[in-house]
Amino acid sequence: MVCVTITALDFERCYRAVSTRDSRFDGQFFTAVRTTGIYCRPSCPAITPKRANVSFLPTAAAAQQAGYRACRRCLPDAAPGSPLWNTRADLAARAMRLIGDGVVERAGVPGLAATLGYSQRQLTRVLTTELGAGPLALARAHRAHTARLLIQTTAMPMSDIAFAAGFASIRQFNDTVREVFAVSPTTMRLEAQRARTGAPARPAPSGSGSLTLRLPYREPLDRAWLEWFLSAHVVPGMELWEDRAYTRNLRTPHGHATARLSFQRDHVRADLSLHDMRDLAPTVTRLRHLLDLDADPVGIDEALGVGPTAHGGSPKRPREQAAEYLPDAGAGSPPESEALTEIDPVDVGRPSFTPGIRVPGCVDGAELLLRTMIGQQISVAAAATHTARLVEALGERVDGPIPLLFPTPEVIAERGADILTGPARRIRSITAAAEALASGELALHQGRTAADLRRDLLALDGVGPWTADYVTMRLLADPDVLLGTDLVVRRGASLLGIDLTDTARWVPWRSYLSMHLWKTALTSRATPSVVPALATTKGSVES
Predict the structure, then answer these.
(1) pLDDT recorded at residue 339
(2) pTM for the model
(3) Catalytic annotation on 90?
(4) Is 486 a catalytic residue?
């Protein structure tokens, strides 16, 4: 995998990436130039600095801590996030996930430390050693990024932006923007307005809580897979798939938001409507997590043996592949037995993996667990029907194009048994899980280790290995979860002659292998009589 370590950046490897302007490394490390006092992303189009004048740092916060300001040409803070925070499960990586979700702004460093189970002193020492900056400096870098987004893309007053970005005062906001970007907030906005002159028309910015953002990602991206996954799992009332765009409501720390996501040639367009602008940063973080946009697909594909010429085919650029494989989703959700049949037919016994596949994440851990439990041992369509009934009866109504939010665990624990249908044991299991979430007995957040989370999930009645693995994989973006008991994954492995008891060569990317096998089974035309059953059966038999 083309990835650098956190604590020991390889100078030669980093300099080679900067010399070739390799965008795959954007977000994985930052280039600090002593002679100019700025820091850049590796793919910055500026002239490559001399070797003697550069150093490489693991985070933007480390560069800011060392006195460097952000390059206004390449905007290093706008690069995709580092894939290391998902591939590593150590304290530093787990802390970065929570900092990105805004925990420091909401609960301070004491709250971050308590969530991770460490003292403030120990947490600060580890982060400073590993990442070059402590938790306050890391959170400050995130606030600066949020401030830049709001300054450049909205007409909000600067005083509102200061508090929406998480700053404690307007003075702190002004000082930080000047220090990080070397311009005042007003100048930054004027420069952004001048840069847009003559550019294609964009939605008019406003201060109403609505804005449009570009979510960057590393290419290639298997758009077809993500579009199918999102459209096939839509729950009416809280989600919508229309005109090849996915729209949903989601709970945020200070209220709720509505997000409309559509895949463009080099980014994901996100149209956001926020009840409280303070939730911008965590909302963006959760949407990126949902689509796995911080992954390093080239490194993953190399490890899994995926490539355009792997099976004798002619090489294609990633964008050409994405366009060719894009399914005709139409205006509604296609049946799962048909949604992917036009993408890539599979010859029995011959692997046919698509470059750039992603592992879908989630925007809410409690919702993920409860929806997964509702869908156990039934078709995806039936699961959507059951979940829609629950949302209609217990969901909170909000203004906007979609009327409902997924119910809170507290409401499901209290009234879920009156709405849910099916086996009595499953209903009891779902309401018991909701009660555990509501009481705080079960904590679902990205700061947990995979082993601890899986143990706690398995302790719940009605949660077996498949559910525990599936939730762990999607909640933590864990790259190495093999869904070996999943019926569809097993069918895909059978079609390709892969022994699921011997997958060590694919460590630590077995979550991505599971997605490839899942897609293989769903797209296979070799045995059409069994595809509908495979495509609509989710999970495996669990006690």
Answers:
(1) 38
(2) 0.86
(3) no
(4) yes
